[in-house]
Amino acid sequence: MDGERLQNRPCGGRYGDIVQSIGNTPLVELKRLSPKPGVRIWAKLESRNPTGSVKDRVARSLIEDAEARGAIRPGQTILEPTSGNTGISLAMICKRKGYPLKVVMPDNVTQERTQLLKMYGAEIVYSDGSKGSNGAVELALEMAAADSSYYMPYQYGNMANPLAHYNGTALEILEELDEISAFVAGLGTGGTLMGNGRRFKEELGDACKIVAAEPMQGEPVQGLRSLDDGFIPPIIDLSLLDRKIFVTNRDAILWTRKLLDEEGLFAGVSTGAIARVAVRIAGELDEGNVVFIVADDGWKYLSSGIYTLPVDEVENLDSTVWW
Amino acid sequence: MATVKIPPVLRASVGGEKQVSADGANVGEVLNALASAHPDTQTQLFSAEGELNRYVNVYLNDEDVRVLDGLETVVGESDTLVILPAMAGGAR
Fold first, then answer.
1. Which of A71, A210, A286, B12 is deepest in the core (most CB within 10 A)?
2. Which residues of A does the annotation mark as catalytic?
3. Are A75 and A133 found together in one domain?
4. Interface of B with A (CB under 8 A)
5. pLDDT digits over A192-217, tens only?
6. Backbone dihedral angles phi then psi of residue B40, each to the nearest 5 degrees
């Protein structure tokens, strides 16, 4: 059975337009990272989506759900707090569908994110970088409250986000693997973990562990005045997680390089963090499949030097919002 | 004694220290020991009902204790507790 599934298919499918081609991404075995023969590590290449990240699925789901519910009018301006990938995905999809897009993001993200947003036609509003994504969410909510002509999908609280995975990503993985011992993904909005996690628990039971890798934001980004300025995305249900492990910026970057050096996989910083956790979980197993999400490709991180410089020479390691 | 790493937002409440030591067999005991030694942290770490403040994440080494055994999570001698504020997950 596995021998048949490992054969390359001749074509990734034929689609009506770029938006319809989102999803159906490859599942690639990473043999060199596997700690022992009975444990197989699989990378789901969400970097192969049209704008280069898993957020293409989410952005399509957010917009198409709003259209189906009649929540947006033709030509209405979409407003969203996003530090990059969701904004980039929304920019591409909104441009295809004729909705102007305004994104709110911290002013300390890598320059490629800004370029990608502009080239896909988004207008950018900057929030205070020292407050990280909390600041972007806060500013976007203020803007939406002050101007009712905006439609804000609000990826942090919109069930269309996890549903993109429940009905898409997870089903694609289940098509290829009969057994999954652990599923590892990054924790940001919570959509990937909640959507995939819920489907895997339903289909495979508690034997499938759902593991979150989360960024340990550098201190310059933790610019909160008090803990009550904290933020927990409404879609997150912690009871669905079996483990939740933070990864420092430094380790995330080291592992991003390791993926490139050992497996030839060119991925973004969150994927390095996720892989680090996936390999640790794999080390705790005797046998089984560990699946992790390659959330985005590495192009937007190139100017930071993380693929070519020693990690301690990377500038602004702690003050950059890497993922 | 466990080591407790203090986030910037709480350092004023512990005399400016980046990390402190505190004794306890589980996370709840360690955090209560911290709050006894530094009373200004009490209302920041705990709700009136004695539950962990929802905007506070506590990690045993690098694992969120809410997904382990919460305040009952066992703490060993050489363990580190890391207190972090709840952030909106970085770049999304």
1. A210
2. 55, 270
3. yes
4. 7-10, 44, 53-56, 59, 62-64, 66-67, 82, 84-92
5. 999 999 999 999 999 999 999 998 87
6. -65, -15
